[in-house]
Design brief:
With 325 residues, the protein is mainly α. The chain has a single domain, classed as Orthogonal Bundle (Ribonucleotide Reductase, subunit A), CATH 1.10.620.20. The protein is 66% helix and 0% strand. The chain contains 13 helices and no strands. Helix 9 crosses helix 10. The longest helix has 31 residues.
């Protein structure tokens, strides 16, 4: 008979390998890229000239593209919410600074560069009402988020695996589009951020893989639970000044769908990749409830594909984002 472990016991077991995990999935701070590597140096004689070049390159970026880019910045800038949420997961203790809390701090440190770099770039672009963007960012941090994971590490690692893949797609596509629009600098910026998100996705996926080896039934049920609820994006409470919580999110999401930066098809593709990554079809030693959960998960991609095929947002943009000049 297999011994049933608590989530805290599983987390403590995984924490024994935290140094190896950090070495594998995070980069050395002293040699990692920093935002200043991609921005004009303020003490350089050509500083003003380089700013004008950035503004010229950004001048013709389409409205939807700017909406998505600024929305991405706001999402990245809400990092304090994500760190506080992750450090509250069951099995993560701030009193054990060298365990899981060390991973969370170092993951946060890498993620912090994303919003920092994008924020400075769009400030220099001359296309953004920075105060309105900052108000939206402050609202988003103040409003928090509700993603249906509670303090459950299994559900949270499903969420982070999915979310890091989604942000990788979004930043990778904004990089491709920036190059298409002739903005090589912005393309490089979005590209390096996308690469970080891809590494982070590999890390969180590896956590789930290991949990499936130790506690397969409970991990399967957590995956099923998250997909029944559907994965909501971390910025789903996004709102502009004077609006209700979440009022701006659907418009930002529609712009991303129209532009092809992140679509309902991508949601399904991510689910399929996780099912394949975690070998859901061949997980052994499941109890009866978890077997039913597996059946549900295996049937879900086709159901989502049928829904996605009916979703076709091509209507002209009527909503005005107060972030864009």
């Amino acid at each position: 008979m297999q011994l049933k472990l608590s989530r805290i016991e599983v987390m403590h077991f995984l924490a024994q390998k935290i140094d190896e995990i950090i070495d594998q999935f995070l980069k050395n701070i002293d040699t990692n890229w920093q935002p200043s590597d991609f921005l004009p140096e303020s003490n350089h004689p050509d500083f003003t000239k380089e700013i004008k070049e950035i503004q010229q390159q950004c001048k013709e970026l389409p409205y939807d593209y700017m909406a998505v880019l600024v929305g991405d910045v706001i999402t990245e800038e809400a990092l304090p919410t994500y760190e506080s949420w992750l450090t509250d997961i069951e099995g993560i203790s701030k009193e054990e600074p060298q365990g899981w809390s060390r991973w969370m701090r170092m993951w946060t440190a890498e993620e912090n560069r994303h919003g920092d770099l994008l924020n400075k770039y769009i400030y220099l672009s001359g296309r953004v009402n920075m105060k309105q963007m900052e108000i939206t960012t402050q609202h988003l941090i103040a409003d928090g988020m509700e993603i249906g994971t509670a303090r459950d590490p299994y559900k949270n690692f499903v969420y982070t695996s999915f979310q890091e893949l989604a942000t990788n797609i979004s930043h990778r596509r904004t990089a491709t589009l920036a190059k298409k629009y002739g903005n090589e600098q912005l393309s490089k910026i979005c590209g390096v951020i996308a690469a970080d998100e891809a590494r982070h996705a590999k890390a969180y996926k590896s956590f789930v893989t290991k949990i499936f080896e130790i506690d397969p039934s409970e991990m399967m049920l957590a995956f099923e639970n998250m997909m029944r609820k559907k994965i909501v994006m971390p910025a789903h409470f996004m709102r502009q000044q004077g609006e209700k919580i979440g009022a701006t999110w659907s418009h930002f999401s529609d712009a991303a769908q129209r532009l092809g930066v992140y679509t309902s098809i991508d949601y399904t593709t991510i689910l399929e990749s996780l099912i394949k990554e975690w070998k859901i079809d061949s997980i052994c030693n499941l109890n009866e409830e978890a077997e039913k959960g597996r059946d549900y998960l295996m049937s879900l991609p086709e159901r989502f594909k049928r829904i996605a095929e009916r979703r076709n947002i091509k209507a002209p943009l009527e909503y005005q984002f107060n972030w864009i000049l």
